[in-house]
Structures are given as structure tokens and as C-alpha cells.
Amino acid sequence: MTLPLSDSALIGTCLAASALGLLVLTGGGGNGAPDADTVATAQVEDAPAPEPEAQAMSDAPADVDEEFGDQVRAYLLDNPEVIFEAVAVYEERNMAAQTDMSRELIAANADAIFDDGFSWVGGNPDGDITLVEFVDYRCGFCQRAHDEVFGFVEADGNTRLIMKEFPILGPESEMAARYAIAVLNEKGDDAYEQVHGALLGHDAPITDEALSDLSADLGLDHDVIAAAMDSDATTEVIVANRDLAQRLQITGTPTFVMEDEMIRGFVEADVLANVAADLRD
User: Fold this and answer.
1) Under 8 Å CB-to-CB from 182, ≥6 apart: which residues?
2) DSSP label at residue 5
3) CB of 148 within 8 A of CB of 191?
4) What CATH fold (topology level) applies to the domain 110-280?
5) pTM of the model
6) What is the C-alpha separation between 9 and 19, in angstroms, rounded?
7) Residues of the chain with pLDDT under 70
8) I want to staple 256 with a disulfide (CB 3.0 to 4.6 A). Which of 1, 113, 219, 263 is the partner?
């Protein structure tokens, strides 16, 4: 799933597309001219960087058919919607290529994603759909997504939910992830679910004192958990999740995997429900 371009990004993309289209169309009309990728590579590797004041002059090839170029320019000015149509086609093709690549990566790493033997499993363990979330407890979008994810899982009733701690936002993120993993290993699934929600709702710095207070609030033996936070078993979980994320080309949180679909970024419950419905069709 790719988020839509902002208005400014779309305008910039359109302008770039129109400039590239005009350059290619007027660069010899297909009379043996190299393709755009070859031209771009050659320019990067072989040509010196032009002076700013000479940039506009250097953008046009020397053998431009001026009459044809004028015709192309006039057509684009009279029909600017063509540029937007071209960008839309490009975005559609790019999204399709990304989706295909994500599905291949998911298939190649299915066991590590859906059955690693150490991640928390909630929802309906026998559900016909599995939803996996890569989460960072200091990520604002993960915090927003918490109610959406659990709301969807509860309303759906037939989804298996897996959480993978993926701390990428600094030492506090890793401390929180280690705490959650330690709670799961030492105190079990129910305690983890409580801690997971509490950490995502925690809007103050993550410190030893804060985690000790959280343990006290939830009736957990913090000394046991604190010892487990620094254990090899906890470290191995974080390393495994980071390695998996790298193989899946996941660089941000939240990222979701629902069966063979990858959803990058915050989504609301109805989006998850729609994806699930499409998978079940």
C-alpha cells in the first residue's frame, strides 16, 4: 500500500515528467537515440556538473527538432491533463511492482513472519487471517494505530494478531521493547497485552523508574523483569526482528503484514477490514 502523493509532490512530479517527456520526444524522434536510463547514467558518470547559470541551456540536446518541439509544447499547454494522466499511470505501475516485490519477500520469509515461536500471538489464534505488526513503542503513529488494530481484531473475530517489537527510534525504544519482551517471556501473554497497551499509551520518557512504576501498577515483579531485559534471549528476539525487517525492506513503523499484503504506515480499522475482506474473497 502506497500513501498518496501530497499536492506539492504531485505538482513537482508532473513538472518533472513533462520536462523529461519533452526532452525525450524532442531528442531525435527515435532515430537511434539512447533511452532515458542510459542518458541519465551517462550524465551522472561522465559529465561535469554544470554551472547554475548554464543549467537551462545544458538541459536541451543540441539536435532538437525545434518545429516538433514547439508542437509538443503547444500540445501540452493545450492539454495539461495529459501530464497528470501520465503520472497516474506511472504511479499505478510503480505500486503494482512494489506489491509484487513485497509478496515475493513475504513468501520467502513466511515462517519467520507468521510462526517464529517467540512473538506474542493474540486475537483469534485459529483465525483465517493473520495480521502482523512491526511496532516501536515511541512511534507516534504506532500509538495512534493501537486502538485501530485492536478494534479491528475484536470486531472481526477471525483474525490472528502477531506483534513484533522493532525498536528503531533510539535507546528509549529499545528499553521499552526489551521490557515488553521480558514481560512476555517471564509473565505470559495476558501480562504482555497489558504492557503493550500501557507502553503505547505512555507519553512520558521511558526510564527505569517509569518501567518500575508500570510493573507496580500491573502487579508484576519488576526485579525479575529487569533481569530478563538484559538477557541473551531478549537480545536474540530484537536481533531476529531487525534481521527480518531488513529482509522485508521494512524501514519504518508501524508496518503491517496481512497474509501476502504489506501495509506501510498508519491505517485505520476500516482499511484493515477492507484488506481482510479482499483476501477472503
Assistant:
1) 225, 226, 228, 229, 231, 234
2) P
3) no
4) Glutaredoxin (3.40.30)
5) 0.68
6) 15
7) 1-64, 97
8) 263
